[in-house]
Amino acid sequence: MKKAIISISASLLVTLRVASLASFFFQATAVWAAPAQIFGGDSKKDKTRLLTGRVLDSGDNPLPNAVVYLTNSRTRAVKTYIVGPDGSYRFPALQPTIDYEVYAQFDNRKSGTKSLSQFDDRSQVYITLKVSAKSDSK
Q: Is residue 39 part of a domain?
């Protein structure tokens, strides 16, 4: 009788260990499979914004080699972009919860400053920057 009880206890212990391991692996898999939902991100949908546009002169001609300045209004960090022959610029992966200011400069001439608000919910924003014909006097 003692051998039967010991045998049943040993097999029950093995069964419990297997069940515990299965439960552990299931829980670990569930955590690794769903980190996006846990941490507020969604891997299927990109939550950043894209700012594109063109830098033009007063006659709507592109200004190659103009420099576009993008300022993060929260940190005041500045990113720059040197436009190509068609006058286009591109700032990808902008945070939607931050306001940005953008302007262009070409030959000591500057465009007006435009804003990209955190309340603008578009994922892609196009802004044309027109550089004035007069030089800035400093």
A: no
pTM to 2 decimal places: 0.65
Centroid of chain to Cα 30: 26
What are the two backbone dihedrals, phi and then psi, of residue 102, each rounded to the nearest 5 degrees?
-135, 140
Q: What is the pLDDT of residues 115-132, one digit of tens each?
A: 999 999 999 999 999 998
Residue 78 · residue 70 · CB < 8 Å: yes
Indicate if 115 and 82 belong to the same structural domain.
yes
Alpha carbon distance 36, 111 (integer Å)? 40
Amino acid present at 11: S
How confident is the model at residue 138, as a pLDDT?
Answer: 44
Q: Quote the domain boundaries for residue 12.
A: 2-33
Residues 101 and 70 sit within 8 Å (Cβ to Cβ): yes
| Amino acid sitting at position 46 | D
